[in-house]
């Protein structure tokens, strides 16, 4: 070894790997990891790169088991001497896969996730630039102890906060109320603020069926029928994406009391920014009313991140007290403990 920084790159597929079939039609995942890296000028100057193709599928096809397996692969690369790991995948699910990886990642070495909004053959394809920026972050000492990071469009996002907020724009990813944690510029990485992260959660228990956790968004005229159907069918948990700061209709609120006796119910906001409040509003269906009925507050976590946290806790066998304390604490400080 020559002492250079080592970055392991694993590809799961996604738009960044997609090409059009000869017969015409829409693009499909075809390229392998080595194919992606050959098209990135200057990558070899960033780090010694090892490329592995893990899967070649659209981001929408990925399952929690695939994400956990990718995390295991990444951990094995670190154990083998990698200074950082880069996972490439479809942007459809990056905001969820990165957050799930982050819940279990217990290494100081950075695990970075990236992808592309345009396929390689498109004019202005963003894949090479995203790969180069993400590799720089994975190789940067300042990325250590920050958990899982998402890098697109030269911005560095914390996995616990990043969201995809546009279906086609190159700047499709944002971090809601708090913004990115860093930027890539002139071949360097600049981080804003200190590194902070929550401890890794226990891994999913072997041999058990994965928990079923529903995500239900309220709507005008919601009477809670879907919540009744889900909890009555024996689902293991529910996240409710409420109006505003965490509100439901009076009719839906009446269903919540029975639902929380069947399974954990987490209350989040469907707005995409700001927290669930605790005691500002006091009407039936307000956050104060719903918390009194036994829901768990998602705080600053958006509904998708709250669902992943609840899924991971249930998959790891957390008891009711641990589950309540963990959801409440992480929702209050999504960037890590103070």
From TrEMBL:
All copies of domain Asparaginase/glutaminase C-terminal, residue ranges: 212-324
GO molecular function terms listed in the Swiss-Prot or TrEMBL record: asparaginase activity
Active site as annotated: 15 (o-isoaspartyl threonine intermediate)
Highest taxon in the source lineage: Bacteria
GO biological process, one term: asparagine metabolic process
Domain L-asparaginase N-terminal: 6-194
Segments passing through the bilayer: none
Alphabetic keyword roster: Hydrolase
PANTHER family found in the cross-reference section: 60 KDA LYSOPHOSPHOLIPASE, L-ASPARAGINASE
Family note: Belongs to the asparaginase 1 family.
Record-given protein name: L-asparaginase
């Amino acid at each position: 070894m020559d002492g250079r920084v080592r970055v392991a790159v694993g590809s799961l597929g996604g738009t960044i790997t997609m090409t059009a079939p000869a017969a015409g039609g829409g693009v499909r995942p075809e390229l392998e990891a080595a194919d992606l890296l050959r098209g990135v000028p200057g990558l070899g100057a960033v780090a010694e790169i090892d490329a592995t193709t893990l899967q070649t599928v659209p981001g929408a096809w990925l399952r929690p088991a695939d994400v956990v397996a990718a995390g295991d692969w990444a951990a094995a690369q670190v154990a083998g001497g990698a200074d950082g790991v880069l996972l490439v995948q479809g942007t459809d699910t990056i905001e969820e896969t990165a957050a799930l990886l982050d819940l279990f990642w217990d290494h100081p070495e950075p695990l970075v996730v990236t992808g592309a909004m345009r396929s390689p053959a498109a004019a202005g394809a963003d894949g090479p630039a995203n790969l180069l920026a993400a590799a720089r972050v994975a190789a940067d000492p300042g990325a250590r102890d920050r958990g899982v990071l998402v890098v697109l469009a030269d911005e560095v996002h914390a996995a616990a906060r990043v969201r995809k907020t546009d279906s086609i724009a190159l700047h499709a990813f944002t971090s809601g109320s708090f913004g990115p944690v860093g930027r890539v510029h002139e071949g360097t990485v600049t981080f804003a603020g200190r590194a902070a992260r929550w401890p890794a959660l226990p891994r999913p228990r072997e041999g058990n069926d994965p928990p079923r956790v529903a995500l239900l968004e309220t709507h005008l005229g919601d009477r809670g029928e879907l919540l009744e159907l889900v909890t009555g069918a024996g689902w293991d948990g529910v996240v409710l994406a409420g109006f505003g700061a965490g509100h439901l209709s009076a009719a839906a609120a009446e269903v919540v009391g029975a639902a929380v006796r069947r399974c954990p119910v987490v209350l989040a906001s469907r707005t995409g920014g700001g927290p669930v409040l605790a005691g500002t509003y006091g009407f039936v269906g307000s956050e104060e009313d719903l918390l009194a009925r036994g829901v768990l507050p998602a705080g600053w976590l958006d509904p998708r991140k709250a669902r992943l946290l609840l899924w991971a806790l249930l998959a790891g066998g957390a008891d009711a007290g641990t589950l309540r304390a963990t959801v409440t604490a992480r929702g209050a400080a999504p960037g890590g403990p103070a």
